[in-house]
Amino acid sequence: MNRMLQGLVLSFAVGTISAQVPDAAQKSFADGGKYEQGKQLSAAMDSYHTALKASGGHCLPCLDALARVQMNMELYKDSAGTAAQLAAQSPDTKAKAEAEFREGLAWFRLYFAQTEGEGAIDKDPKHAANSLKQAEAALKQGETDDPGDEVVRMLHGHVLAEMKHDEEASREFTACAAASGTSPEECARAQRFAKDVSLARGEPVPAFEAKTMDGKTVSLDSLAGKVVLVDFWATWCTYCKRDSDYIQSMLDSFDDGRFVLLEVNVDESEAAWKHYVEDERLHGVQTRDDSKELRSLFHVSGYPTYVIFDGDGIVRERAVGIEGDLRGTVRKLLATAPAVPADARTLLPKPAAE
User: Fold this and answer.
1) Which H/E stretch holds residue 265?
2) Would you call 306 exposed, middle or buried from its count of C-beta atoms within 10 A (0-12, 13-18, 19+)?
3) Which of residues 353 and 90 earns the better pLDDT score?
4) What is the distance between the alpha carbons of residues 68 and 108, in angstroms, rounded to a whole number?
5) What kind of architecture, by CATH, is found in domain 2-147?
6) Per-residue pLDDT for 7 more than 90?
7) CA distance 266 to 273
């Protein structure tokens, strides 16, 4: 299910679009790519805007890149608007549906940000409700344009579940599970949502992949059925060090076949990270976010940040520092979660591809 990974990792690429950047826009577009690669997102956004203007507003790669950067900058409304422009200019219904998926995802992300109050976005229930309606409208159109798109179906199901339109949501999840492009793990998740739509309410965890310290790969699919505590930390973070014993102790409290501690280090130095993990004898799945991609996906702005998600890939708690009862949340989720089949335990982690 490659596009589910691409879409939720915010690395969008409309597969059926092969249009070239117009000559007048090529320099600005290339500059945008360099800035984006260097994580200078504001400069990248400005360059892509310039490229789009130079093209007279008709440059599919410019719109594609601009929507991606806006999403990574958490400018969700802007990203939705750009994705809508991309849909309007897409050359066929499949590409149009992919762009509408992106528009729906941006509105859905804005809904959660407005529901909770996140970063620079204020808590605003009235505007959140409108964002949810906008997400549903975009995804409904995407489904009309490409009824066989399993990614649109899955996200549409989540949106409908959040709106408490359970019967419609169940139909979407059933259709997603039956689609040929759905991975076995995503299929099982969709089937569970179809039977009990309440399980799908909440913020879906973005699809991701990360390399572990020993060179293996951990992903959302590899964690299917498990309760996961993600810990974003740094060796220079005083509070991370203070809380480390508490976080590590959870590995002794819960069954390692059903609970996973995913440690995500944010140090610039790989050597500093490895030395610290070895010196402190840290356990759990150890990864390092050298590309800053995971921080962007999980909306991390301070350290330590903790995110707990359940076996169905739904975020159930988010905290900066030890706020609330992380152990209690994990215990509650494990008590209500079905047992993980023995063969599913082999999914974590898998060897990295050569």
Assistant:
1) strand 259-265
2) buried
3) 90
4) 15
5) Alpha Horseshoe (1.25)
6) no
7) 9
